[in-house]
Each structure stands twice: as C-alpha cells, then as structure tokens.
Design brief:
Length: 298
C-alpha cells in the first residue's frame, strides 16, 4: 500500500529533483531565460512547466514536474496492462528534453516517474519508472563512453543487474520501427520497479537525475563552443525529425499525457522549436548520416 505520508515524501523528492534540474540547466548560460507555468489538473493535482532558452546553448529546454490524480487510466497508453478494476490513479513525474543550438551538442532526455493505483477491492498497485538517453547528430566516442560509464557506475551502486538490463530496455524502447533505427546511442530505461522497498527506488531515481545532469552538462561544456556551418545546422534539423516522429508515435509519456487530458503545451514542449523533413540529401549529408548511423547501430 501507498499511504499519505509516503506519497508526500515521494512528491517532495520529485519536486526537489525538478528544482535541481531547472537550476542546473539555467546556470549553463548567464543569458538564460526561464519561464515557469503553474497549472492545475482537471480531477486533482497539477504541475510546473519550465521552458529554458538562451541565445548561445539552449535553443529550448523543457523541465517539467507533474503530480496528477484521476479515476480513469488512459487506455492505449497502458495497452491493457491493468484490469478494469482500477478506481483511481496518482501519477508523479519529472521530465526533461534539451534541444541545443549547436549541432555538435547532442539532444538529451530524462524522465522519472511514480504511479500508484487503487483497485475496487481496496488493494494498491505501485511502481517506479524512468530513464535517460542521448541523441547526438555528430557523435564523439569519448562522449558516448562517458555517458555509458557513468550510467553503469550509477546502476552498480544499487544492483549488479541493473545496468545490463536497463541498457537493453533503453535500446529496445527508443527504437523507431518505421525507420528501423534506434533514436540515439542509448542510456538506461526502466519500468515496473516495485519488488524492493520504495525508499530504495526513491534514492535510485534521485541519483539517476543527478547522474544524468552531471553527465550531460560535461558533454555540453565540451562541445558548446565548437564552430559549425549552415550545413551542420541543416543536418541537425533534418535528424530532429526522427525525434519528433518517435515522440508523437511511440512515446508512452506523450501518449499518457495527451490521453489523460494533461496540459498540451507542457506535453509538446518535448518537441524541438525547429525541424525539417524537406531537406535534399547531398553527398555531405549522406556522409554525416552514415557516420551517425554507425554509432547508433553499435
């Protein structure tokens, strides 16, 4: 069971994670601009959506918090995962998507979440989920190595089997079926975590968010001043199309948010402000894409 005291502790932890992430990304540039919107959910709870942008590093960053309550679980978002005996749900989560200006800085995503469901017979179902991944346009071996090394060390602090399992789940989940491509170079992804104590998972997801932030900011600082051309930028806009396709067709968080009647503007903040599908592939584009896919396929 999940009691009120536990729910308050979980919500407070997620709130702190949100504040930590907003501060971390806002501090990347002295010219950073943060716009926070507070919103309420129709059947209980609400959230905070933070849009971060500047003229040097972040074309758009979305750092969102939500804690919503309802009586009807969105149908296809869970694909018949639960029986019809659910009479209420409470979902708490933090999500981040960063779209940088510089094509040599990868896009990145984080999500951590907690669900608790109440059944007709009074029983309770709960679980934690989340993960993070990296989507480069011009990949660097050292960045990818750092990303996975830090993820492996993070997982190892909690369970010897976490990294191998969560890395595979990430590769399987962030796969664009109609393109037959992985979205990026992976990371970790996990769901349905409920076999250990809640405090174990709460500590884990807090560490997940900290490791994500430190790993990504390290990469950003390494690449943010690299000179790029219009062709590099055009390639970034073209490959962003893959990100949009995944988020609108396959992403469970997007599905859940839209089907549960969440704030549409917050849900779609994950999409890049600029993207293009109508770019003619030159020989240089083909070269860039061949190199990128080599890393993605690995």
């Amino acid at each position: 069971m999940t009691n009120i005291k536990e729910l308050n502790q979980i919500e407070n932890t997620f709130n702190k994670i949100h504040k930590k992430l907003v501060k971390g990304f806002s501090n990347l540039s002295p010219n950073s601009k943060s716009i926070i919107t507070n919103w309420k959910y129709k059947t209980g709870g609400g959230g905070k959506s933070c849009r971060i942008e500047d003229k040097q590093i972040l074309e758009q960053g979305a750092v969102n918090f939500s804690s919503i309550k309802g009586k009807v679980l969105p149908g296809s978002a869970f694909a018949g995962k639960f029986s019809k005996d659910i009479i209420s749900f409470h979902a708490i989560g933090v999500s981040v998507v960063i779209h940088p200006h510089n094509p040599f800085v990868p896009c990145s995503h984080l999500n951590v979440r907690f669900f608790t469901l109440k059944n007709k017979n009074g029983s309770n179902t709960w679980w934690f989920g989340g993960g993070y991944d990296l989507t480069p346009y011009f990949p660097y071996k050292e960045d990818i190595k750092l990303w996975h090394k830090n993820a492996e060390e993070l997982c190892g602090r909690y369970d010897a089997n976490y990294y191998k399992k969560f890395k595979k789940e990430c590769d399987d989940y962030f796969f664009i079926k109609h393109r037959n491509e992985k979205r990026g170079v992976g990371g970790i992804f996990f769901d349905d975590l409920n076999t250990k104590d809640k405090s174990h998972y709460l500590e884990f997801i807090n560490d997940v968010s900290s490791t994500f932030l430190s790993s990504y900011i390290t990469i950003v600082k390494q690449r943010k001043t690299k000179k790029f051309t219009k062709t590099h930028k055009s390639f970034q806009l073209y490959r962003r199309g893959r990100y949009v396709e995944f988020n609108l067709i396959y992403d469970r968080g997007t599905l859940f948010g839209l089907q549960s009647g969440g704030r549409v503007e917050s849900i779609l903040m994950s999409l890049p402000p600029q993207v293009s599908w109508n770019i003619k592939k030159t020989n240089l584009f083909e070269k860039y894409e061949k190199n990128l896919l080599k890393f993605i396929k690995k």
